Amino acid sequence: MSGSHDKTICLWDVFTAKELRQFRGHAAKVLSVAFSPNGRRVLSSSADKTIQLWYCQSGQEIRQFVGHTGAISQALFSPAGRWILSASANRTIRLWDVETGNENRRLQENGPPVNRIALSPDGGRALSAHDDGLRCWKLQTGQESRRIAQFGGFGDVAFVPDGRHALATETAGARMRHFDLNSGEELRSFYASPDMLLTRVQVSPDGRIAASGYGEGAISTGGLSIWRMSDPPPLGEELIVAGRNYESVRRDRGIHHPETLQALNGWAALLIDNGREAEAELLFRQSLKSQRRNLDLDHVFETLAAMKLLARALWAQRKLPEAESLLRECRDGYRCAQGVEHPDVLVVTDLLMELLEAQGKREEAEALGRQRFEIWCRYLGPGHPGSRHALDKLATSLYLHGKATEAVPLRRQLLEINLRELGPGDRETVMSMKSLLLALFSADRLSELEDVYRHAIEVVPNSAVLHNKLAWLLATTTLDKCRNGRRALELAEKAVALEPGKGEHWTTLGAARYRAGDFKEAITALRKSMELRNGGDWADWFFLAMAHWHLGEKEQARKWSCRADLWLEKNNPNDEELRCFRGEAEAS
Description:
This protein has 18 helices and 22 strands. By secondary structure, it is an alpha+beta fold.
């Protein structure tokens, strides 16, 4: 079974590779598919904000599950097939009854974005992967039972069949990590090649094999990696050669000779890269003990490098306090040897900042981030890639920890630097612009969003999403000085022209036409949105109610207003924006 960006779901014969059946009904790309435990039904989730249940044999749709207000990244059957767990871009995780289609419970509301979810084999627990770590949930109560922090976050997660352990792939990296869910401790890491970006992960039913999908670089040509769970990864040829080289140098030069210790450090570093941190730790401790006792200041950098690598080995084994102590000692050593502003000091400071984040020491990590950026700027200037990276990392940390207001000026500063150094069309500039938009929105600084959106449209003139976002802002903002119906209409029409198949663009066009006083055409656009999005959502219904009321069609107005009110009370009764729409509809 496969889902596609062309909005279809396909059932395939695994032996002949022939397509057996297509399932059609979603109005946007399909993001996940799953078989029911008995194999008779199929579940799909989509960017159209719906979940659909199908008969596998006939391809007939059974029912829709409606309520999420963002793209639904994943939907899963419970082990018994009686309920469904779903995760959405609107930051919610929900439980649904399969037979009635009703929502039973929400595990998360308005938390961090959900990348992926997983269910325990007994159906009693769920895991969710986020940009700030993992969360474990008790499904009977809907309560969060454990949180595993990770700076940079996880892209996917899967339970091991025993239900007590899990595997998670890092959001931007070549590492998959194995956790004990009862203690929250990391048991080991699996490393792919550094140029691989691990994406999805699954574990075999017997728990002996794990499979991870990966992409390579910016264009994901990708493939599949297979890992053995029970044994350490086999020694590769490079590791074997490094070990033999160390033994050879040790015999020729003696155990305390600088060349011997250099060979030992190289071997231990390769062990870390291959997921054998415990063995690397023993070698680094041996190396450091010898270097501290026998080497003079001429070899201080070999000692500091060994300390940094030992800290990395300890970090991978979750021995965080010891790793932190070593990194602080290492940073102080580089400062004494090379000065406070040397790049080597900044590299170790970067590692220390991440380690503090992993331990929840956010205030100190933030202070280090600011100090690191200031030093980069003094040493190499604000336009240097290292300075830009330091500023981006600091702003990201503030944003992820709920300090969007403090992140906004840093995001503005980074955007100005990127525009000056890289130009408006560079990918890094565009990404910094998007990050600024997110920070402004999270900081509730809507009056500033318009200027940034205008600038963004100048940079990316054919982006339907940007045109739509600005049009919606101008048509619906509660700030009278920012509302501009005429301009909203122009932008919404451009968004629809660029992507006519996107229902949300038609919603915005309907809102803009309503603001312009063209109530009949507003209704036409809103009905088109509902057609593309399987009935639409609260935005369509509120604006339909107001448009019909202005046309004197009171019964239709009451019908759509009632539908929107029921949805609001059930799903998000405290959302300020939605309550403003309700108030406007009631006043019409």
